[in-house]
Amino acid sequence: LAARMRAFGTTIFAEMSALAVRTGSINLGQGFPDTDGPAAMLERAVAAIGGGFNQYPPGPGVPELRQAVSEHHGDHYGLAYDPDGEVLVTVGATEAIAAAVLALCEPGDEVIAFEPYYDSYAASVALAGAVLRPVTLRPVEGRFTFDPAELRAAVGPRTRAILVNSPHNPTGTVFTRAELEEIALLCQEHDLIAVTDEVYEHLTFDGVEHIPLATLPGMRERTVMISSAGKTFSVTGWKTGWVCAPPELVRAVQTVKQFLTFTAAAPWQLAVAYGLRHELGWVLSLRADLQAKRDRLTAGLSAAGFDVYRPAGTYFVQTDIRPLGFADGLALTRELPSLAGVVAIPTQVFYARPERGSHFVRFAFCKQDAVIDEAVSRLTRLG
Ligand code: PMP
Ligand code: GLN
């Protein structure tokens, strides 16, 4: 294994999902729903395959999907992206993030990311030979946020880009306009590119609305805006994502993307275009369902003795395990199947400095109510 990747073993998601299967535990680790997306959208994928839509689609993506993404961003955010030249379809948000970082960074450039971060960020930065500069999100009155002074201190002469994930996995924070303004100001002062990971854009609760960083003044021209279908339509296995950015930035990302995968699988693209056009009502009901599931799991975990951070978005509840007498989330999650028959994710693996997150464990609530209830009843035995 090349030196730049030696720090990266098996992802925590593979480890913990395998542990769940091996031990027959309830899997509240890896974030994937246990119910399907909208039936009509699934049928579109079947129809696309049956209808012979099975050869290489154009490199930038199927025109119907690029058009649908463009309309979606116009309708929801008032952002205009030209489907020809400002929208690029990718193999999930994961490829988009990797391609963006590889496209933007010279070896030795620095990329800022808020820790804890989705694990592919550090790997993408390492693949580019760049350096990740973490800025820690910490709980303030029950919600994870950053210290603007720490963010400013992370910028140096080699800083090229900042990765911004909101709604945020794993903390559940949805950045406020004031937080986004801090980031926007910094990007403009230091001529940084923002790479935004908005895969949970539709999964926000209690009336909290997701604000894309690109909608802030001066940001559209310096933002690579990324999302995907997996979370919005409960099809995490479809791995269909997209990048929206000004032409020059899209061209840069596409230059890399074409040699990573050339293009993304065809049938899903047609189906997701249909979903974006016709199934946003379904997404609203998903959002309401998930809010109820969040309440169900947070109440259960609190009763079981965890300190719980109530998320404003995403699939995930971040918990503090210290009230239960545990200190190390990695040790606890490896033991949890035998202690309670449940699998969760140790948040420390999402930190550049794991000791800052060693007492946090993440639980997913994108599961059927009976599954959540059973997991909670098992976890209640821990106390
Ligand atoms: N970013 C975040 C924050 C995620 O939680 C995930 C997992 N869905 C991804 C990116 C990857 O998305 P995709 O499956 O579309 O590659
Ligand atoms: N995004 C999901 C999570 O955070 C799963 C990602 C993955 O399996 N790579 O759980």
Would you mind describing this structure in some detail?
This protein is an alpha/beta fold. It has 2 domains: 3-37 and 281-382, Aspartate Aminotransferase, domain 1 (Alpha-Beta Complex); 55-278, 3-Layer(aba) Sandwich (Aspartate Aminotransferase, domain 2), CATH 3.40.640.10. The protein is built from 13 helices and 15 strands. The protein has helices at 12-23, 39-50, 63-77, 92-104, 120-127, 148-153, 177-190, 229-232, 247-260, 266-278, 280-303, 329-340, 369-379; strands at 26-27, 87-90, 110-115, 131-136, 138-140, 143-145, 159-165, 193-197, 223-228, 241-244, 307-309, 316-320, 342-343, 345-346, 360-364. The strands form 4 sheets. A 7-stranded mixed beta sheet has the order 2-10-9-8-7-3-4, with helices on both faces. Helix 11 runs parallel beside helix 13 (369-379). The radius of gyration is 20 Å and the shape is globular. The mean pLDDT is 97. Bound molecules: 4'-deoxy-4'-aminopyridoxal-5'-phosphate and glutamine. 4'-deoxy-4'-aminopyridoxal-5'-phosphate binds at residues 92-94, 118, 165, 169, 197, 199, 228, 230-231, 236, 239, 241.
